[in-house]
Amino acid sequence: MVSPAIALAFIPLLLTIIIRCRYYFVLFYRAVLVRIWKDCVTGLSREERAYQYVLTHATPGDPDSILDAFDVWCSKVEFISNIGPKKGKILDRLLMEQSPLTVLELGAHCGYSTVRIARSLPLGARLYSLEMDARNAVIAEKIIRLAGFDDDTVELIVNPSDEVIPLLRSDYGLERLDFVFMDHWKKCYLPDLQMLEGSGLLGKGSMIVADNVLFPGAPKFLRYIRKSGLYEWKVHRATLEYSKGIRDGMAELVYQGIK
Amino acid sequence: MGTSAYTKEYFCLRGTSTYARGYLAVQLVDVGLELEGNEEEEEDERERHRGRRRDGDREKKKRGNGRRRRSSRGERGEEELQTRVEKRERGRMKKGRRDPEAKGREREEEEEEEEERPEIKSCKTAKTRKNIKNENARKMEEEEEERNAKKKKKHGSAKREREEDRSKCTVKEKAREGRRRKHKRVETSSEPETSEEDDLKEETEEREVRPESLSPEELEMLKEAVEEKKKLVQGLRGKPWPMKKKLVTLRESQEFVEKYEGALGKGKGRKLYAYKVMMSKKWMKFQRDFENFKTACIPWEMKIKEIESHFGSSVASYFIFLRWMYGINMILFCLTFGLVMVPEALMGRPYGTIPRKTVPRAEAPSAMDFAVLWDFGGYAQYSVLFYGYYNNQRAIGWLKFRMPLSYFLVGVGTVAYSYMVVIRTMARNANESGVGDDNSFNFSWKIFTSWDYLIGNPETADNKFASITTSFKEAILEEQESRKDDNIHLTRFLRVLANFLVLCCLAGSGYLIYFVVRRSQKFALEGLETHTWWERNEVNMVMSLLGMFCPMLFDVISALENYHPRVALQWQLGRIFALFLGNLYTFIIALMDEINLKREEEKIIKFNITTWEASLYNATGSENSTAPPVTFHPADVPRGPCWETMVGQEFVRLIISDTMTTYITLLIGDFLRAVLVRFLNYCWCWDLEAGFPSYSEFDVSGNVLGLIFNQGMIWMGAFYAPCLPALNVLRLHVSMYLQCWAVMCCNVPQERVFKASGSNNFYMAMLLVILFLSTLPAIYTIVTIPPSFDCGPFSGKKRMFDVIQETLESDFPAWFSKVFSYASNPGLVLPFILLMVLAIYYLQSTSKSYKEANVDLKKKLQTQNEENKRKNKLAALKAQTDLEEARAATQTAERQKNINASLQRQHAEEEEDLGSSQRKNGRPPPSVRHQDGRPPATRAPVPRTLHPDTHRSLGYLPGGGFPQQREPRMHRVPSLQRH
Question: Transmembrane segments in this chain: where (chain A) (predicted)?
Fold first, then answer.
């Protein structure tokens, strides 16, 4: 039998781990436990609950107020991994500088980032937003329309990204993508990027922004862009959305083409 | 070679924009005056400038010129390929041009010659190569040549032409270029081919004769050129050139020197010279190799350098410390091994002759079991490894080796040596870091000294870059916040809180150890056999675990404090030091208790033995007095507990368990974690490498302290277990390799890489403290507790140090012991100690006053600097005002003089404008200023001489004449305002 004194000697280790990983514990509680509990209690999905909240707390036709409502819900009530206000500001800045005319968004989720991008687009620009999950897409559609963006500005495509990207040129008549925002499955970052390269939609100066490259993280993606030499890239370091202590980053790539 | 090219070059070479602007201004005035510049005048002007420039920075120029010339010659060379005749004409032209030109030009020619020579040489070498290659082709050609022997007449003229070096080169180049062509031609028409073939032959012959054929002037020139190249190579490091240019220059000049150094001198002298050059080169190479060899001889130098390049100097400082420690332990090991263990093993009585050298009968069956040996019981206990094995025989072997004395002196010597080395190293380090960094130039220090030049890994460099950036940000923030100290309270509060938490932690761990030790004493009284392995090893386990986990907790807590990492490292070191010290002293106190227990036991056993012997005697005596005395096997003789061996065993066990914990932590905490992170990352939902568990960082503070405390335990236990230094050497050796491997394979560079230059003395100071603290208990036991009666070299004496007295009495002459007894008299010792204290006090106070003087001098120097600066500034201001006044005076005079001549007035204003622009730039260009300062009468021609250049350069400017005419007026306004 192990003596109690030896067991007591492990207390510092336990304390260390708890203090070190407190943010992860909090995140686990908010993103997983609360979600399961609420799912059971309300019978609605998380996105639907978010939509209800936004519907009751935001002004229709005002993207800012919708975004604010989302932020409040995500930080106070439950957790949805949107891009968040802090990283969103970086995204806004990049969009302002770039003022792209054709934007592709991979992973609309429930429309937060779509609204965020659409509101800072120049006149006449068009945003193609991809969402794989049909239920989320319904919510996203509602949110986008609630924010006052019509079909000409934002087009929501309900299909997985690996099916849509090869068809962009033929079915959607795209010639070039000025801006691509990636926020879908982290595993798909790399294949989708390679597919975009292969499709020839990226021209010199096209910008690709990928969220959450450090947490949950897309190591293969980062390794690829480091090696490929096709891009000028940097990682904007920030923290995970709606959380203080977890570090995360947003990768900004500018396509240089083959020299 | 057009004049326009020269003007362009000249204009470019004027350098700074100030010059350019000034010339522009002058030129704008003169636009109308002299449109057709006199060619010769221009040439003269150019040459003059050139000469001046070359005097100033000739080497720099030479390179530039050389390159330019070479490139131009390259173009020329191609032309030369076309026809030889054209070439000759060119040479004539050159000669013709050389005549009217000045001396400066000649020098240029010389340089040109130098530049050309390598070209010739290369031509030749290429030539020979080709000759070998074309052996077959040539045979064929020769046959054809014989056939066309009559054609040779024609070639005579060609040979004559070839006397000139340059033409030679042309031929070769031509041959080289047209090699393929030639091959074809050989088969088709031999006529032109044979001539060329002849050329080739002559060429090879000439090449062998050539060095002798050099004229003395040429040799002189060559020598000079070589010297110059050498000088260039030497001074290359100080040149303000880009690295690429430097490298190219270096390589070229080295090649040049190599090629022509051997050619200098003639005949025998030449050979000797070549030999000397060769030898000096060999010698240099040998020196370099020897340096490499020396570096390779320093143990683990390359390993440490590699780690340094990956992890920065803070991690490397640990390894350097480890190596240093290894060296010290090596010496300690040599002392104990050579003077104690080996003599005893070789010359002392062998195992099994006396009771103390025999395993007791009760333990004999299990004495060879691994578990027992692992605990250093059984045969290990009854060997040279421990105190108890040594006999108290005064002199052993044929050498009459004084074993007990040697044992005692080695015990004292190890400690004394350690003190000496540590203090000496500290003193040396203190000297090195004596300069100290001022806080007065915080940002300058940061800018110029923050880069760690030993980093050789891109990732670490990134980290270092980031850390410098953040440190800058922090420093700026600190500067800003130093004025408003609203945040300081929070920081203070957090720091106090952190210290409070750490204290709680220390108290908790202290109590836990105390509790465990008490429990183990209870177990010991009850008898260890009734308890489990866990309970028996509780003390060691708990100590190791606490020593492992508490630093982690401290680390987490120290995040509250927000110190600079260097400061944080020192705090962390201090805390872990306190923790380890507490643990160690709890352990020692427990050990003292155990010693007392053993001594009680010893008393009882001593009594028992006397009764046992008496009974034995009685038994034998009662049975038969004539019977031979019964001899007992030494294993059967009862014996005392021998507390010294027990202490030694405890220390050895502690060291072993400590080592095991370190290695296991390394393997689990670093290696296993790294493996998991690496390979689980393929199928995990977040990025393990960049995210949460990540790879571990190297824990400098914990490792350093582990090392220091380990050493402390060695010092403490070495007296009772002579094997300890050997064990420690082994441990350090293994951990050197293991940790080097672990660092390179499982750790990542710290996020905030920082330089740890100053912390080395910090380690040393801690080592000194530990040395002191660890010798205290050892000395205490040696001085106060009498040695065991039946084991160890001092058995039978009242105190261990009695051995010295004994030696003095029996081995030295009587007068020596008398002297010694006088010297050790308190009446003599006390004044001596007093004197020493006084001397120390005196030295300390003088050093303090020196330090103060140093500070004063530094201050003085600084104030003097400031004063000088101010003076200079004042002088400059005064000179400027004087100049302005003078200029204003001349200007007014001139205005009165030439009130009607509008053109000339414009001139004057332009001059003034030029001057003001110079003034604005702070450092007036000397040449222009000189012209400016001339009296007004001579001023008129000056722009004219300058004119052609500036005028020519005008052609390169965009825009025609009209805007230029307008510009002066725009310039005039600010200049008027200034006056």
Answer: 6-29
Interatomic CA distance for residues B728 and B741, integer angstroms: 19
Residue B958 confidence class, pLDDT cut points 50, 70, 90: very low
Q: How far apart are CA B799 and CA B806, in angstroms?
A: 11
R_g of chain B, CA atoms, integer Å: 45
For residue B542, give the nearest of A5, A218, A219 by CB distance. Answer: A5
Q: Between residues 213 and 252 of chain B, which touch chain A (CB distance below 8 Å)?
A: none
Number of C-beta neighbours around residue B774 at 10 A: 23
pTM of the entire structure? 0.62
| pLDDT tens, residue by residue, B101-121 | 444 444 444 444 444 444 444
Would residue A234 show up in a list of annotated catalytic residues for this protein?
Answer: no
Q: Using DSSP, state whether B235 is helix, strand or coil.
A: helix
Judged by a CB distance cut-off of 8 A, whether residue A207 touches chain B is: no
Burial of A191 (0-12, 13-18, 19+ CB in 10 A): middle
Bridge partners (DSSP) of residue A236 are: A250
Q: Pick the closest to residue B847 from B437, B439, B434, B436 (CA basis).
A: B434
Return the sign of the alpha-carbon dihedral for residues B114, B119, B120, B121: positive
Nearest to B223 by CA among B121, B110, B55: B110
Q: Where in chain A is the domain with CATH 3.40.50.150?
A: 85-255
Question: In this structure, what token pair is assigned to residue B894?
Answer: 């001139």
Q: How far is the C-alpha of B814 from the C-alpha of B804, rounded, in Å?
A: 14
Q: Is B925 helix (H, G, I), strand (E, B) or coil?
A: coil
Q: A6–B534: do the CB atoms touch at under 8 Å?
A: yes
How near does any CA of chain B get to the CA of A84, in Å?
19
Q: Residue B327 has which token pair?
A: 């060296």
Q: Which CATH architecture has domain A85-255?
A: 3-Layer(aba) Sandwich (3.40)
Cβ atoms B931, B942 nearer than 8 A: yes
Strand pairing of A247-255 and A126-131?
unpaired
A245 token code pair? 């202590």
The span from the CA of B309 to the CA of B389, in Å, is: 49
Contacts of B415 (CB under 8 A, 6+ apart): B715, B771, B775, B778
Find, in chain A, the residue whose alpha carbon is nearest to that of B542. A6
**Cβ–Cβ contacts within 10 Å for residue A126, how many?**
18
- Confidence tier at B180 by pLDDT (50, 70, 90): very low
A78 catalytic per annotation: no
CA B695/CA B580 separation, integer angstroms: 26
* pLDDT tens per residue across span B136-150: 555 555 555 555 544
The minimum CA-CA distance between A53 and chain B, rounded to whole Å, is: 29
- Candidates A9, A11, A214; nearest CB to B691: A214
Q: What pLDDT was estimated at residue B138?
A: 52
Residue position matching structure tokens 């070998």: B132
Closest Cα in chain B, distance from residue A160 (Å): 20
Give the number of other CB atoms < 10 A from CB of residue A118. Answer: 23
Going from the C-alpha of A242 to that of each of A90, A156, A249, the distances in angstroms are: 15, 26, 14
Chain length of chain A: 259
Q: Is A136 a catalytic residue?
A: no
* A232 in catalytic set: no
Residue A167 near chain B (CB below 8 Å): no
| Residue spans of alpha helices (H) in B434-457 | 442-449
- B519: which chain A residues are within 8 Å (Cβ-Cβ)? 5
d(CA B962, CA B525): 114
B516 and chain A in contact, CB less than 8 A: yes
State the nearest Cα–Cα gap between B695 and chain A, in angstroms.
14
| Known catalytic residue at A183 | yes
φ/ψ of residue A101, rounded to 5:
-100, -30
Mutate to test the interface with A, among B509, B522, B531, B553 (most CBs of A within 10 A): B553
Spatial neighbors of B588 by CB under 8 A, at least 6 apart, are: B716, B777
